[in-house]
Design brief:
mainly alpha; Fumarate Reductase Cytochrome B subunit; 7 helices; elongated
Length: about 210
Amino acid sequence: MKRIYLHPLPVRIWHWIHAACIVLLVLSGIQIRYADHIHFMSLKDAVNFHNIIGIIVSIDFLLWFGYYVFTGKIKTYFPTAEEILHGAIRQIRYYGYGIFKGEPNPFHPTPDNKFNPLQKGAYMTIMLVLLPLQIVTGIILLDVEKWSYIVDFLGGIKVVDAIHVLLFFFFASFIIAHFYLATLGHTPLAHFKAMITGWEEEPEEHH
């Protein structure tokens, strides 16, 4: 195995803060949405807790965005034409077939290109579209009167709430999928270890 320094310290700190906050948002969101059936805490406390964590996630997102733009690493989230046309197909075949046959992963990460084509497409959509949309709808729901003109423009409070809740279900599902995919390294804990130490272990290539 060869070791690659794939995850700088700022990225690792952001990742674990973000992961913890998203889980807390999902749990408190469940409490708010199903207050008549689930009682982790009082509804008022759940709403206040959810709002505070939401603000932390918003700040954390801005820090992430600033870091990736300032360092130029934001381009790692945009797949190239070759990756879209060919790399994505190879990766889909690997996840759907090759991995069960013991075939090697066709993608090998580097510090400048650490996401495979499918990851790039997924993370680009999540981090640059869905998460900002969730943050914006959350901010609107914090003070509906203040943002009433935006609420009216979007079609009413029910539309804003529906968007926020649908994204809530998406992120809850994504947590499960992300956790599963993170176990697909050369050992089930390899990717978790890499996100703690920064060092990813990759098989040596033999020609």
